[in-house]
Amino acid sequence: MDEPDKLPTDLPAEPREDTRQEDFAQHLREIRDLFARQKRVEDLVHRQEMPRHELVEQLVHKENLAKLAQKLEKLHAADIAYILEALPLDERLMVWDLVKAERDGEILIELSDAVRESLIETMAPHELKAAAEQLDADELADLAPDLPSEVMEDVFRSLGTEEREQLRAAMSYDEDAVGALMDFDLVSVREDVTLEVVLRYLRLFDALPDQTDQLFVVDREDRLQGVLPINALLVNDPETLVAQVMRKDALTLQPEDKAETAAQAFERYDLVSAPVVDADGILVGRVTVDAVLDYVRQEAEAEQLAQAGLKEEEDIFAPVIDSVKNRWAWLALNLVTAFIASRVIGAFEGSIEKLVALAALMPIVAGIGGNSGNQTITMIVRAIALGQIGQESERRLYRKELKVALINGLVWGGLLGLVAWWLYGDWRLGAVMTAAMTLNLGLAAAVGVAIPMTLQKLGRDPAVGGSVMVTAVTDSGGFFIFLGLATLFLL
After folding, report:
1. Of 141 and 43, which is predicted with more confidence?
2. pTM of the predicted model as reported, rounded to 2 decimal places
3. Which among 31, 210, 350, 365 could bridge 478 via Cys, Cβ 3.0 to 4.6 Å?
4. Positive or negative torsion for Cα 157, 160, 162, 167
5. More confident residue, 313 or 132
6. CATH architecture observed for domain 320-490
7. Is 188-307 in CATH node 3.10.580.10?
């Protein structure tokens, strides 16, 4: 048998992530340069009071807009979304007006919620309807919460029967359910046909759905029987039946499953796509790796924002009042916790006046306790997110973290105690320092476990506010423990 021709080795490599990021930044710089050039021309024309300066200004403006529109036409929807998010509101609206109407929908889907809302507010109902009609049912379900109700009613009436049912199904699931990630665009085949028939069927498509690594094998009632990997389709004899090469042990998801569960499965088994079936085993859709990655990214961003006390992702160019509303609650909570810590210190003013060394040493006790508590809460929150621990593990986690705190407290507290003894010449101060450090690290370990576990029991996100609460407890607790011990044994 003749050897197959070798594949060419000079195929272009797929661009790296850092190269794509450089391209984004370059596009943004070029667009900012266009706006800056327009501004310079306007200033120059006005300063020199040129004749017919309005005409000159309009000509330059039109030229810049033409260049900008030409550049935007070549960019991917995700790149345009990146640029829109990085521009102030007036420039953002100018760029948005230049985007071709038939691309509005795909760009809106790529935008953050805050920036998307700022653009939707400027669009007329007929423009919103046209943008929504460009989207598939699963994409439209993501956009629906931001659209006016009358626009959604118009869009719903314009859909076909099947699309209406898909949209209604997609909108019925919680944001953190598999059904919210589900894609209805898939390819299904029967098990009693040959691979040759499947190949002929696939040639009827202009293009296969994105992330198609397998076909879904169903019976006449659309019950899932298995999956047919694309590689199995290509390497087996065309006369082979689908039933002979399909996989019956494929992982399946249900629409009500947690999206977090799907994300863990995709990571664990390196999946590209997975079928979604209802309680009767009927194939209703699929989940793809790009949807899972989007979910994971959004959850990570939401967790970062929550840890900083932000309710939602904020448009960096949002009006001042919107930013104030987004930030005030956590600042108020921090103010309360800081006031409590100050009152703890105030209760020991007499002790601090008699022994000034206490004022220099007490921030160390509170700071180390806060860092240790945040380490603990980070590990616990991560383990909860990965499904590694439950309520039955709580007692074991307390014991383990308290042992870690005891060892760290004795080691690092002892070291700081020796330093305090050397600096101030009082071994009793060193002993108080060691004891206070150990006790505060124990307190940090206890609240580091208790806070996320309690939030989980209450059905709340364990990551929200945990670090702020740990810091508040270890600050106030650290001051109280250190100053209290010092008052008892040194004064």
Report:
1. 141
2. 0.69
3. 365
4. negative
5. 132
6. Orthogonal Bundle (1.10)
7. yes
The rounded mean pLDDT for the chain is 83
Are 441 and 369 spatial neighbours (Cβ–Cβ below 8 Å)? yes
The neighbouring-strand residues paired with 194 are 241
Q: What are the boundaries of each domain within the chain?
A: 18-177, 188-307, 320-490
Q: 1-5, 99-103, 174-178, 353-357 — which one is most confidently predicted on average?
A: 174-178
Contacts with 210 (C-beta within 8 Å, 6 or more apart), sequence order = 185, 288, 290
Over its C-alpha atoms, the chain yields an Rg (Å, rounded) of 31
pLDDT bracket for residue 44 (50, 70, 90): low
The correct CATH number of 18-177 out of 1.25.60.10, 2.40.50.220, 3.90.1200.10, 3.40.50.720 is: 1.25.60.10
Q: What is the pLDDT of residue 312?
A: 60
Q: Is the pLDDT of residue 227 over 90?
A: yes
**454, exposed or middle or buried, with CB in 10 Å at 0-12, 13-18, 19+?**
middle
